[in-house]
Amino acid sequence: MADIGKPDGGSAGVFSVRRVRRARLAVAAVFAVHGAVTGGFATRIPWIQDHAGISAGQLGLALAFPAIGASLAMPLAGRISHRFGARTALRGLLALWTAALALPALAPDLLALCGALFVFGATAGMSDVAMNALGVEVERRMGRSIMSGLHGMWSVGALTGSAAGTVAAHTGLDARVHLTVAAAVLTVLGAVFCQGVLDLRSAPDEHPPPRFTLPPKSALVIGAVGFCAVFAEGASLDWSAVYLRDVLGTSAGAAAASTTAFACTMAVARLAGDAVVERFGPVRTVRTGGVAATAGGALVVLAPHPAAAMGGFALIGLGIAVVVPLAFAAAGRSGDAPSQSIAGVATITYTSGLIAPSAIGAVAEASSLTVSFGIVTVLACGLVLGAGVLRGATGSAGASGGQHLPAGTAALPGGDPR
């Protein structure tokens, strides 16, 4: 979205405390809707593959297009918010994303599926940047950490969407019907929830952000930390079940349960993460999380029994859970072009999520899955070393060294407590 703008009303251009609290609930609901689209789509990928009549290799090619679309489109989110205002921009971009949920199931062949997934990713990326930027602004006005909880709501939405998709798949419901109905429901919910977000507008004399630009240096440094976390997340989500089955010889059911447990651990840790960040600050939280993730990776690599490996994956999920929310928060508080920084960090993390599963597979093909997760363990160490770049990730004194706001107050645009 555009850099810190002005509200659509209120005394002296200030949002009331109650208004900011409502905005927090609204943006949290938006995060859940965004996650529900991802969860619903993921459950119907097998149906979509069969409907398009494509091989596993062709499916892998098609699944690269969401990240390509997101990476190309995310820089446009700031310009759209500058032009239309934060609320209108988010409402429109989220509606495009929820509506795009219906497209992949309609694709009759590989070419159409690649096009549908490109649009799917582009709308996902732009709405992702817009909602994270609004989340950062609400956090700034509240003066305390909320980004981890917002991303926790995304995880809750993804789990809800995947649960509904699992039921639909189990009953044999045509994915075209399922995803079209889901798209309609989520579009309506998204429009309702967007009514409650802050309506920030750029100053009349503010220049619009460029359509396409390289991320500022601050985003590259912050994004590198996010890269490590998302790589570990993507590797664990996509390969934990395979690791348990192929390396440790566990049953298919237990292997699948490990993936679900990992996702649940991430969601719970993110929902509880704000309190931890408020207590210990982003740097200590991420550094400690990095230690936990590193220990978890080592446990996976050295595990003599499936239960130990499951514990290792749980530690990885616990350790990396708050890193991406804090990376977005730090980008939004960077001194140079917050909207561009958020888009830059989002692009880097999306790229990491794209390459992680294939990179793990390539290393496993050349050596073994154990070596692959040795790489994950090394990247987890990067969280310990790089945690310092997230020092400004929250607005509270304990978290970032900034001004502490009394409970129940909201920050003004200048940073003073109301």
Overview of the molecule:
With 418 residues, this protein is an all-alpha fold. The chain is built from 17 helices and no strands. It has helices spanning 17-43, 45-52, 56-62, 65-73, 76-84, 86-100, 103-106, 110-142, 147-170, 175-194, 217-246, 252-302, 306-320, 323-332, 338-366, 369-386, 397-400. Helix 12 crosses helix 16 (369-386). It is globular and about 60 Å long. The chain starts with 16 loop residues before the first helix and ends in an 18-residue tail after the last helix.
Structural features:
globular; disordered C terminus; single chain; disordered N terminus; 418 residues; mainly alpha
Q: SSE string, helix = H, strand = E?
A: HHHHHHHHHHHHHHHHH
Label the structural class.
mainly alpha
- Count up the helices: 17
Tell me the overall shape.
Answer: globular
Give the proportion of residues in helices.
over 70%
What percent strand?
under 5%
Mean pLDDT: 83
The rounded distance between the terminal residues' Cα atoms is: 25 Å
Unreliable segments of 5+ consecutive residues:
1-13, 396-418
**Rg (C-alpha, Å):** 21 Å
Strands, count = 0
Oligomer type: single chain
| Main beta-sheet annotation | none
